[in-house]
Amino acid sequence: MKNLPKLTPYGYSTIAKMVVLCIAILAVAYIPDLPGVVRLLLTALAVVLLIFTVQFFRDPERTPPNQPNIVVSPADGKVVLVKEVDHAFFNGKAKMVSVFMSPINVHVNRNPISGKVTHVKYIEGQYIAAFDHNAGERNERTEIGIENGRIKVFFKQISGFVARRIICDLKEGDEVKIGERFGMIKFGSRVDIFLPTNVELNVKVGDTATAGETIIATYP
User: Fold this and answer.
1) Phi, psi (5° rounding) for residue 11?
2) For residues 160 and 100, what is the distance between their CA atoms, to the nearest angstrom?
3) According to DSSP H, which parts of 57-121 are helical?
4) For the chain, which terminus, N or C, has the lower number of CB atoms within 10 Å?
5) Do 173 and 145 touch, CB atoms closer than 8 A?
């Protein structure tokens, strides 16, 4: 039992539905007189679906680095974009880092800094592929801003072509700690992080980020 992966409560309902679906597939697979090859294919389908669902909702423990003035990645995945942009939350320029989460990544999201939540907004939108750099402005998303007196960070949970549900437990006024879980995006997605221009970035395009542990920037 101790080797079983920890699962996020965000996925319990989906896992339960998948278990029911897999049982139904297996029931069909073992109908009498069904050709053996069909039975084998249906059984394999049920097993693959269940394994994929369980691994998608795994939620390993994470420990943020014990360092001051750091911003950690809110998501697991690959850094696909680093650039400077204009951003209203910063009243001017900001540094942007985008992390793309494939279906094989852990999808539980974590707070990038400790501080107070000053902005939360859900925006309906499209479902274009999350690796498209237009996704951050066109897709369904939740925007979040956190401030702590030393720095403020703005980030977006962005749905993808497959992702159809964004979960965010945060609300304005919440006091949060760096590395704590706050939500997830189901089945493939992206997180865009916006930072003040005075930060020193610690990642580049092509790097792999781990939510709650990878330092994406440091600040004065």
Assistant:
1) -105, 0
2) 10
3) none
4) N
5) no
Q: What is the CA radius of gyration of the chain?
A: 20
The token pair that represents 129 in the structure block: 């592929």
Per-residue pLDDT of the chain (220 residues), as tens digits, is: 456 568 888 889 889 999 999 999 999 998 988 888 999 999 999 999 999 888 888 999 999 999 999 999 999 999 999 999 999 999 999 999 999 988 888 989 999 999 999 999 998 866 555 555 655 566 788 999 999 999 999 999 988 665 557 899 999 999 999 999 999 987 668 899 999 999 999 999 999 999 999 999 999 9
Q: How many CB atoms lie within 10 A of CB 193?
A: 26
Please give the structure tokens belonging to residue 176: 């949060």
Specify which residues 110 forms β-bridges with. 181
Q: Domain 70-218 in CATH: superfamily?
A: Glucose Permease (Domain IIA) (2.70.70.10)
The ranges assigned to domains in the chain are: 9-56, 70-218
**Residue in this structure with the two tokens 């697991």, named with its chain if needed:** 76
Q: Catalytic residues, which ones?
A: 189
C-alpha distance from residue 175 to each of 8, 68, 98 (Å): 22, 18, 24
Strand partners, 117: 146
